Amino acid sequence: MTLADLTLLALPFVLGYALGSIPFGLVLTRLFGAGDIRSIGSGNIGATNVLRTGRKGLAVATLLLDGGKGAAAVLLAGALWPADPALASAIAGFGALIGHCFPVWLRFKGGKGVATMLGISFGLDWRLGVTCALLWLAVALLTKISSLGGMASAVAAPVVLWLLGEGANWWLLALMALLIVWNHRANIARLRAGTEPRIGQKG
What we know:
Distance between the termini: 50 Å
Shape: globular
Number of strands: 0
Helix content: over 70%
Structural class: mainly alpha
Mean pLDDT: 89
Radius of gyration: 16 Å
Low-confidence stretches: none
Number of helices: 10
Number of domains: 1
């Protein structure tokens, strides 16, 4: 492997990680007086837990910003590494997800990654993003359980990318899906027990 190959692998990942590690949920709740989100509900820094503060505007902002940083990582990497923009974009997206889930600033305790992966999907291909967003919304609205929608969307993403004929880097999306499902292992246990909180439910 040449130095150029290593650069293509390493630098987009670092770029993605730096963007992904910005903990918007924590920043917004502290900035607007909602306290430390890590002491509320599930303790997660994502939009679903921000919603448990009762501040719907902050939850929407967290959702958009967490998705935006994933999309930004993908689009910037594609522009900065034109030799292989598809690979650079996918690696940057993977880095953004790792950064969100394991931010160095919070001792590697971050979010579960669903909104960030949705942004990554939009950055890779708008058709992929729309499909994943609609699936997420449909499952979440039907079940009133955010975790189910998020996991369904994540698992579908690599399959949808392959069906769109852009499956060369589907394996990176598959790795992201596995990480997201792993991050939801406590949710899965609660789903099996019938105790998983519904959307908007506090605690």
